[in-house]
Design a protein that fits this description.
3-stranded parallel beta sheet; elongated; 2 domains; mainly alpha; 3 strands; 119 residues; 8% strand
Length: 119
């Protein structure tokens, strides 16, 4: 049986990132879905243990749906630098430190590129 998300359906965006919530809310707005973030529901962030962006997105969506009882949508992304053999990849958020500071992550990327003479 196929399940459909009807207009007015509450959809959990499995993210604690306000920017990601806005992006996804903008994408689903034409469909009339009521978007709520995992953070607004006080859902914990699951540990990202998968080895791909898709795997981590699936893990987050399943966790949010299971904990909230609502349909959930998740996204996982990061920066892959060819000169660094794809790093930081799925570890991009970790490179940003505990404060998830994008500037901090970019500084580390520059440092790593400098170490190999690519910067």
């Amino acid at each position: 049986m196929t399940r459909r998300l009807e207009k007015g359906t509450r959809l959990v965006v499995a993210s604690h990132n306000p920017g990601k919530l806005r992006e996804i809310a903008d994408l689903v707005r034409p469909y009339g879905l009521d978007v709520v973030s995992a953070s607004a529901l006080n859902l914990p962030e699951p540990e990202e243990t998968e080895t791909t962006f898709a795997g981590n997105a699936r893990l987050k969506a399943v966790a949010a749906a299971t904990q909230s009882g609502l349909p959930a949508l998740a996204d996982d992304s990061g920066l892959e630098v060819e000169a660094l053999h794809g790093e930081p990849g799925i570890y991009s958020a970790r490179w940003a430190g505990p404060g998830k500071d994008f500037g901090f992550a970019m500084k580390r990327v520059a440092e790593e590129l400098g170490k190999i003479g690519a910067w």
